[in-house]
Amino acid sequence: MTGRARQAFVYLVLSHGDPEQALRLLQTLRRASPSSALFMHHDAKAGRLPDDRIRALGVSLVEPRIRVFWGTYSLLESILVAIRQILASGDFQWLVILSGQDYPIRPLAQIEADLLGSPYDAFVRATASDGAGYAYRYEMQYFMLPRWASFRGLPHRVDKLLVAAREAVNARSGWLRIQPRPRGLPTMLGVRSMRHPFTQGLTRYKGSTWMNLSQQAARAVIECGDQRPELLNHYRRTFMPDESYLQTVLFNAQGLRILNDHKRFTAWDPSHLAHP
Q1: Structural domains of the chain in order of their starting residue, each with its CATH number
Q2: How many Cβ atoms sit within 10 Å of the Cβ of residue 77?
């Protein structure tokens, strides 16, 4: 491999909104961990980056920039592209995957010391989800419906009837699912897959996208996609694959020591549990 010398830490920041907020995180990481490598993927449909300040911090921008849409393969794709670029740029001991809204709540030196002294290869929060609870996400293949199929802007009474019809289809049909999405995004139509990887002895996991990976664990993620393209191809058309593909690969990998704890604190508003 060419590029930088071996690094103890690589921080990957995935930014989707306010670039100034992500810049604040990058500045904190650089100040507290001056020898670490910083990488950033900034959503291609988001605002422009303050390029001069990003370059001054020594941040490597992940290319190509991907247009990321909630619930689709695009977020997982941006992570896989970033991990591949990070692996190609040099050796490291730990890769910490962060969102642009994250911020360290302990001194970074303590966090890094904990990782360096750990006997584990990855810190990932996930649970086995082979039951029916998440079958609608990961045993179906999804397709975008035209925007007009979302029927937005209709009178409230008509909208209620359409919601009731959608819920009836989803409750009674094991073969089709109409999956609405927030923020004005197109509705998705799911069709149950006649054959999927979870019928072949693979345990499916569902969990948090945010995790800490050793180089060995990061390499296992990329090698699985190269060696088992059918698994990645299946996940390309699932719903919210970023919450299952990485977790499934890592927990099924041979020889990896994984702690089921991603070492993150997330605050949820009890009145609005859809988002932290």
Answers
A1: 7-130+204-259 (3.90.550.10), 140-192 (no CATH)
A2: 19
